[in-house]
Amino acid sequence: MKKYILILLTSVVTLSSCSDWFDVTSGSEIREKDHYSTLAGFQQSLIGCYISMTDNILYGKELSWYAIEILGHQFNPVTSNSSNSKEMQEYEKFNYDHTQIFSDIENIWAKAYSVIANANEALTNMEGQESSLNEVYYHVIKGELLAIRAYMHFDLLRIYAPSLLMNPGERTFIPYVDKYPSYLSDRQTVSYCLQHIIDDLKKAQSILLSVDKSASFSMESRFIQSYNGESRFLGYRGYRMNYYAVTAELARVYLYAQKADEAYA
Questions:
Q1: Angle at the Cα of 148 (from 132 to 208), degrees rounded to 5?
Q2: Minimum mean pLDDT range among 79-93, 95-109, 121-135, 209-223
Q3: What is the pLDDT of residues 211-246, one digit of tens each?
Q4: Looking at the predicted structure, is the pLDDT value of residue 12 above 60?
Q5: Which residues contact residue 131 at a Cβ distance below 8 angstroms, ignoring those fewer than 6 apart?
Q6: Segment 128-149 mean pLDDT
Q7: Cα→Cα distances 163→147, 219, 243, Å
Q8: What is the pLDDT of residue 218?
Q9: Exposed/middle/buried for residue 56 (C-beta within 10 Å: 0-12, 13-18, 19+)
Q10: Which residue has the higher pLDDT, 84 or 36?
Q11: Could you write out the DSSP letters of every residue in the chain?
Q12: What span, in angstroms and rounded, lies between the C-alpha atoms of 106 and 97?
């Protein structure tokens, strides 16, 4: 009987302290609220998005010079019999059931939405922070995050959905994820996604206008390390989603949406 009482008491103590036990943060873990308690946390999240975009499964390889170019038949037909060449031949034939190609397609989808989720997490935590963050930094970070979200969705749409020229109608293809956390997002029509991409880019354009068209940012300073004595974070803006990059992307999306007049403007 004493043994059963001991077991019962042990269970009660364990359950009562369970919430405290789960509340322990490991040395390598950073809480979301702690991460976004400082400007550095927001800066790291933005730069983290750019770093993730350079992964081989995205713009480090597949979406810059390899898979996307082979699918577009931008290379001469492959004739070699090496293992890599055979894979390229399967890309040329649009054989999406090929083991490696199927894996690549899934990984592109997952990695792209991971970048979007990270951007959304930072944007969610920026709400109500405008007064506590430096105005310039706030506009740079928020504008670039919105632009990254739109940019990634646009490429996902181009890859995984037909263009408007194919008359996709009300069929749905990819989710447009603009909330964090988002555990289950419905797929949307091409027109829906294009409109949300345009809306995000226009917001980003408006936010970044005050920064990139200010007297402080000369054309020369966009490609140098420092900005007006500030940290390196505000340097090299010519290589990031600045106002001009966002405007160019907006024109590109308008063309894809068959809105030539808006693209020209």
A1: 55
A2: 209-223
A3: 888 756 666 667 776 655 556 788 888 899 999 999
A4: no
A5: none
A6: 91
A7: 21, 36, 26
A8: 63
A9: middle
A10: 36
A11: -HHHHHHHHHHHHHHHTHHHHHT---TT---HHHHTTSHHHHHHHHHHHHHHHTSTTTTTTTTTTSHHHHHTT-SPPP---SHHHHHHHHHHTT-TTSHHHHHHHHHHHHHHHHHHHHHHHHHHHHTT-TTTS-HHHHHHHHHHHHHHHHHHHHHHHHHHS--GGG--TT---EE---SSS-S---EE-HHHHHHHHHHHHHHHHHHHHHHHTSTTS-TGGGGSS-STT--GGGS-GGGSS-HHHHHHHHHHHHHHTT-HHHHH-
A12: 11
pLDDT of residue 236: 82
Query: For residues 49 and 118, is the Cβ–Cβ distance under 8 A?
Result: yes
Helices 39-53 & 99-126 angle (0-180, nearest 10): 160
Angle between helices 135-160 and 99-126 (to 10 degrees): 150
Q: What is the pTM of this model?
A: 0.85
Token reading at 40 = 């550095």
CA 225 to chain centre: 24
